[in-house]
Amino acid sequence: MATSNRGQWSGKLGFILAASGSAIGLGNIWRFPYTAGENGGGAFVLLYLTFVVVIGIPLVLAELSVGRKTQLNPVGAFEKLSPGSKWPWLGKLGILTGFGILAFYSVIAGWTLWYLFEAITGGFSGEITPEVSAQMFTSMTSDPWLAIFLMGVFMILTIVIVQGGISAGIERTTKILMPLLLVILVVLAVRSVTLPGGMEGVAYLFTPDFSKIDFGVMMSALGQALFSLSLGMGAMITYGSYFPKDENLPQAGIIVAFFDTGIAVLAGLIIFPALFSVGIEPDGGPGLVFVVLPTIFNNLPAGGFFAIAFYALLAIAALTSTISLLEVVVAYFVDEKKWERKKASWVAGGACFVVAVPSALAAGGSAFFTDFMGFGIDFLSIQNNLWGNYSLSFGAVMLCIFVGWNWGIPKALESLEASGHKFAAAGVWGILVRYVCPAAIAIVLGYIVFTGTYF
Ligand code: TRP
User: Fold this and answer.
1) Is 22 in the pocket of ligand 1 (CB under 6 A)?
2) pLDDT at 244 over 90
3) Is the CB of 141 under 6 A from ligand 1?
4) Closest CA to 248 of 15, 53, 408
């Protein structure tokens, strides 16, 4: 299999930026706050942080080790490490999951474009009450053509970048913009926390009420940890496959995980204080972030400028994530089916556009998809649960079994340490990947599936 012309990151920093670009996105800024709000706040946050450390980081390294060793897409990688086995199916499930996630993620990403447009045209000037903000949000999402159009524009942006190839497309986009996003988030968090009543939001986020923990909350926290770190479907296998031979991989992976988690906490520190300050309920669902944010811009000096900068950077953060989702699908067709990159990008992206239409109509655009078949849940949330929680968790258990028991920890470690840098936590990591992670994920996922809770 030709690996020489696949391209490579320009060093460790290039990798860290690109992998952070994949990890940091709507998962941190849109999904984390609203999921935390739906699951009672502090207890969810504590579980999420625990899962990041105990499950997320070990899995980041497990996926990266497979990618670095094989230098292939997930399907090819499993085939190479376990020839003639059924493991490549896990890679195929990952590719399907990437496609499934992109098919609802692109809808939310489209919303960010609309808010950017509103910010540029002065839509957030003057006092915006929670009612006005909620009204703005629904008038966008309930317009079917607008929602489809926005999703489509975002899909095209993603396709155009992915077809341009790996380092040229992805790295350049991330290099300057990720640090800028961080700066804007810090400014907004400081403003939000110091709003009257803002500290209540901080308390909500960090005071765990243990009585709120049940398997549903655990599933959401686990799914969020995996989703946010782009785990469970082979994205990190793909990214690891472009990692330079002579650089310290475990260190780079851990930096990415910390950076990603830091951004999510920062987003929480923007949303919850603001929401308590203006009196919005924390369990408002997928629209939460979009409804809360416009209410703080006019409390900020140069708020109009910050609004534009924020939505522009949010759209770009989303774009660097959609790129990684489509890239996994495209890399499969390029490596395994020998398609041209350009053709693979347009065919996969085009198909995803079609599949994303019902999700685009699920926030008021169509009654059928908003209350899907009368289940009392919208189609987008179903997709979000199905791919973002269940499928990623399943993929994560299987990956632990593969690396821990089939391919084996010694070989995975060899790959992690290929540059000659020793991985100090190798012993703990092996135990986590072999026993703790697969058992913990299987218990949570198993409980949810067998008791039929949560859908
Ligand atoms: N992690 C991204 C976010 O938080 C979303 C994402 C990109 C993703 N690639 C992924 C999630 C792969 C799961 C798997 O926004």
Assistant:
1) yes
2) no
3) no
4) 15
pLDDT value at 400 more than 80: yes
Please state, in angstroms and rounded to a whole number, the distance separating the CA atoms of residues 380 and 386.
10
The verdict on the CB of residue 324 being under 6 Å from ligand 1 is yes
Total count of residues recorded for the chain: 455
- CA 23 remoteness from chain centre: 5
Centre of ligand 1 from the C-alpha of residue 396, in Å: 14
pLDDT digits (tens, 9 = 90+) for 427-449: 999 999 999 999 999 999 999 98
CB of 228 shorter than 6 A to ligand 1:
yes
CA distances from 183 to 69, 170, 313, 393 (A): 36, 21, 11, 32
> Whose C-alpha lies nearest to ligand 1, atom 4?
27
Q: Summarize pLDDT for 143-163 with one digit per residue, the tens.
A: 999 999 999 999 999 999 888
C-alpha count within 13 angstroms, C-beta hemisphere, residue 301: 2
Residue 77 CA neighbour count, 13 Å, CB half: 36
- Indicate whether this model's pTM tops 0.90: yes
